[in-house]
Specification:
- The longest helix has 13 residues.
- With 159 residues, this protein is an alpha/beta fold.
- The protein is built from 6 helices and 7 strands.
- The chain has a single domain, classed as 3-Layer(aba) Sandwich (Rossmann fold).
- It is 33% helix and 26% strand.
- A 7-stranded mixed β-sheet has the order 1-7-6-2-5-4-3.
- Bound molecules: adenosine-5'-triphosphate and magnesium ion (MG).
- The site of magnesium ion has 4 residues, from helix 2.
């Protein structure tokens, strides 16, 4: 879909968070400034996390507690896949929280093969972004219909 403004990207993410289960992984993909952190902020809101979510660029991982624990990871600064392997992401992902990884496409070989890819892109206007949700593996494919409902509801909602 196309979101019209940062608030609509956050609203979509908050609705997706309503479908989240322990152990879920979301891989956020898209150029600089396309809204990966904005998506993480909305997702946190959807998990009833009150703390402000900022870019974890300098810390790599930040964790927040709401309905579920949210691990917000940004691997932009990792130079090599080996550094991602050293982070032991599979262990982080497996600890019962939900993990969101910005620039996650760079480290897919170091990740479990079940995740929701969230692909963000620029739109026709300054405040438009394309947002595509693509289940990889069974975990999210099983929720595909509910994901479609979430997108449809966000489209109809206030923006
Ligand atoms: N429809 C939209 N969805 C999301 N962000 C939008 C939208 N329209 C405008 N913006 C603006 O685009 C910027 C997105 O910044 P954000 O930090 O979320 O991007 P990012 O993908 O995380 O960037 P980086 O690659 O630096 O981590 C914000 O300033 C936000 O206000
Ligand atoms: Mg960011």
């Amino acid at each position: 879909m196309t979101t019209h403004g940062v608030e609509q990207t956050r609203a979509l993410a908050a609705a997706v968070a309503g479908l989240a289960e322990p152990g879920d992984l979301l891989v956020l993909v898209g150029d600089l400034g396309t809204g990966k952190t904005a998506f993480a902020q909305g997702f946190a809101r959807g998990l009833h996390i009150d703390e402000p979510v900022t870019s974890p660029t300098f810390t790599l991982v930040r964790s927040y507690t709401g309905r579920l624990v949210l691990h917000h990871v940004d691997v932009y600064r990792l130079d090599r896949l080996q550094e991602a392997l050293d982070l032991d992401l599979p262990q982080l992902i497996d600890d019962g929280g939900v993990t969101l990884i910005e620039w996650g496409d760079a480290v897919v070989p170091a990740l479990p093969p079940e995740f929701l890819e969230v692909r963000l892109g620029y739109g026709e206007a300054d405040d438009h972004r394309s947002v595509a949700l693509r289940p990889v593996g069974h975990r999210w494919a099983a929720r595909e219909r509910r994901l479609r409902d979430v997108v449809a509801a966000t489209r109809r909602g206030p923006c």
